[in-house]
Amino acid sequence: MGNIFYRTYPKKFNKGKSNLGFFDIYDLDQRFMVGKILGVDFIVIEDIFKKDGDFLDFSQINKNLGQDQDFVSQISKAHDLNLGIFLRLDLSKMRKINNKNIKSILNFWINKGVDGFILDDFSNSYKFFEENILSLKNSYKNIKFILNTSDKKIQENFDGYVNFSHWKNSKNFNFRNFILEQNKNDFSFALNGDDGFISKNFLDFKHFYTNCSKLMAIISIMRSEDIFIKEGEESLYYKKEIDKNIRKEIFDFYRKIILIRYDNLDIIKDGYYPLNFKNKDILAYFYCKENKALVILNNLSQKDVLLDLPEFFDTKKSKFLVGNISQREIFKNINLRAYESIVFTSSIKKYKL
Fold first, then answer.
1. I need a surface site. Which of 132, 188, 197, 262 has the fewest CB within 10 A?
2. Rounded distance, CA 145 to CA 264, Å?
3. Cα 187–193–195 angle (5° rounding)?
4. How far is CA 55 from CA 50, 91, 99, 205, 240, in A?
């Protein structure tokens, strides 16, 4: 799919010591404006359904967050901004799952204007998938589905499938080793994943949070797969000590990266190639179409690293696009500073890749 999704969570939120005030579905339009300014394609709305004991009732909004009809009104506001709305449903939270009730719930929200669904814990049989998701997909050509499943047959027969299952038990994984391993295996990868990554596992936010958050924006967004931005990630909302001007700087950087991605999407979608430098603190790769490359270089350490770019890059015809620290001239030998990330285009010389 290659779309950009902004994940938001209507929720109770104390605004001060008085414990008055909260964010709820009536504030969703504020989140829509954030998404519109960033340049995302879809808003994913999570954790909004009525609790039914240990289960969830996916046909009703949690009354503490607002009324059903007001939520439907918010869907219309998103459409007015040309934003699509996704709902996230964890099927393991349904009291009883069968063909009748899953179709009823999905049809209910489709008729309310929802544009797509993320279905978690999709571990049912292929027959169930065929009778429900495929039939709905055929009936509603414009409705999109993202499934969390490891079923190979479903993967092979579903256009638009995204597999989140490898994130299920990954809250404490070593993020730095993970992305290096993914790069080594020639995958385009989703770094912010499904539970939200804890980048402080290897990034020193205490001293470098501005540079590090921008570095993560570059790695997370400059790729061909679906991209999921978790609410607050674009401004380090969860770090209380950060100055509001820095938050704005990071937000503006996210917006800039998204625009650059769209400008170069034809290259990004054409082909991914890892650059395996000997230094394992370097995460480097490029996308290529015909004789033009989009190159991303990332230093994941607190030490400067000198890189010798491959000969097939014509650095004389390179153009710097963006960096998390400052603008750079592109030469064959590049000294990447601590936690520095740069993106540039380059012509490819007539060598075989």
1. 262
2. 26
3. 155
4. 9, 10, 18, 38, 33
Structure tokens at 122: 């999709």
pTM: 0.84
Q: For residue 273, what is the DSSP state? A: E
CA–CA distance, 85 with 72 (Å, rounded to integer): 11
The residue count for the chain: 353
Place of tokens 């980048």: 199
Q: Model confidence over 279-301: pLDDT tens digits?
A: 878 889 999 998 899 999 999 88
3-state SS of 250-271?
HHHHHHHHHHHHHHCHHHHCCC
Query: Backbone dihedral region of 203: left (phi > 0), alpha (psi from -120 to 50 degrees) or beta?
Result: beta
pLDDT tens-place string over residues 181-212: 666 554 444 444 434 444 444 566 666 778 88
Q: How far apart are CA 89 and CA 47, in angstroms?
A: 9
pLDDT greater than 50 at residue 267: yes
Place of tokens 């499938």: 161
Tokens of 168: 């299920």
Among residues 2, 20, 1, 9, the alpha carbon closest in space to that of 264 is found at: 2
Ramachandran angles phi, psi of 228, nearest 5° = -120, 115
- Rounded to 5°, the CA angle 174-177-182 comes to 120
Q: What is the DSSP code string of 46-111?
A: -S-EEEETTEEEEEEE-TTT--HHHHHHHHHHHHHTT-EEEEEEEGGG-SS--HHHHHHHHHHHHH
**For residue 229, what are the contacts with CB-CB under 8 A and spacing of at least 6?**
4, 5, 6, 7, 38, 40, 192, 220, 221, 254
